[in-house]
Amino acid sequence: MSSNVYTSEVTVDNASRDQLSESIRLREQRLAAGIDELVGRLHPKALTASAADSVKSVVIDEEGRPKVDRLALAGGVLLVTVATIGIFASRGKRG
Fold first, then answer.
1. Is residue 78 part of a domain?
2. Residues 6+ apart with CB under 8 A from 19
3. Domain range for 57
4. Keywords in UniProt for this one (predicted)?
5. Which residue among 32, 36, 57, 93 is least packed, with the fewest CB closer than 10 Å?
């Protein structure tokens, strides 16, 4: 095989049948590898792991300790949300 099978120098005009076959085979391999990589990235388990890592990085520092300020903020938001829902729910029962 010629060393230029993997380059743009191989064209229908100047390549042998064997070179074209090899070029097609190599392109099919690259496409299959690309598709396999995309399928792996989009697999639900991979997406879940990525999301979990992202959330962990928000609330846990590099040493594995919780980021107290972030956790306190999240707790405060949760408390305000529950209180707001409780207030609206109690008003709905009165009316």
1. yes
2. 1, 2, 4, 5, 10
3. 43-92
4. Membrane, Transmembrane, Transmembrane helix
5. 93
